[in-house]
Amino acid sequence: MFTIIIATHDRPLLLKRTLESLIAQTCQDFNVIIVSDTAGYLPPYQELTQLDGRFDYVIRRSGKNGPAASRNLGLAFAEGEYILFLDDDDTYRPGHLAALKARLLRDKPELLFCDFQVQNEDRTAYPPTALSTQSISIADVSFDSIYVRNRIPNSCVAYRRDVLAGVRNEADLILYEDWDFLLAAMHGRKLHHLATDGVVIHKSQATAPENMRRGNSQDDKIVEVMLQLYRKHPAPNMATRQARQALLASAGVVLDLAYF
């Protein structure tokens, strides 16, 4: 049913927690592809043993670091009917895949997204200490709204595999490669929502070392990359163009409507 692709980068203990959440799933109709972008990757043998028959590949790829290229390599081997991307520091609650499967079997939607929980935590020791947990509903996200900004975490989308024919992650993007990927997959498709919060997005302090290699250290590039994506994925209607303009204006960036 599912192929779960996990891109990982030097976070072996957090990856172990992610795999433990897969081991605990009440639905075991999945296989896992783990792709590391570092030479020092050591597979989590104990957890993989418990996933015997449900992981096909553990790959250490060459090239520059970053999740986009790792996810693309995973896609090249994916065979499940639905493709899921799971970040190496996020987890699923035990009934998540069962809830997804029950919904997906009803009418085989092309793209399905779900709600989630955010767990703030202290990662100075292992296992991390949970500080707070909040359920987040994104039921109000619409097809058009994603052309303005993306509020759907990467770990919350189920892609029917045929939808991803020719769709790949842009490895040259500094930020928002998951947003770009979702927009590309959405072209000509329908988006469906499932009201379940079985995905847990784990967050540590923005200034923590594990966060500085990604978006938190690239705040000065946000507008530049947003405009790049706006040009790449034209707004589907005038209302969306105006919403794009208003969003950037609220951040102090005033541009003519022709930019959107």
UniProtKB/TrEMBL annotation:
Ranges of residues in domain Glycosyltransferase 2-like: 3-132
Pfam families the UniProt entry points to: Glycos_transf_2 (PF00535)
GO molecular function: transferase activity
InterPro entries linked to this entry: Glyco_trans_2-like (IPR001173), Glycosyltransf_2 (IPR050834), Nucleotide-diphossugar_trans (IPR029044)
Keyword Transmembrane helix assigned: no
Keyword Metal-binding: no
SUPFAM superfamilies the record matches: Nucleotide-diphospho-sugar transferases
Keywords tagged on the record: Transferase
Protein name: Glycosyltransferase
Organism: Rugamonas rivuli
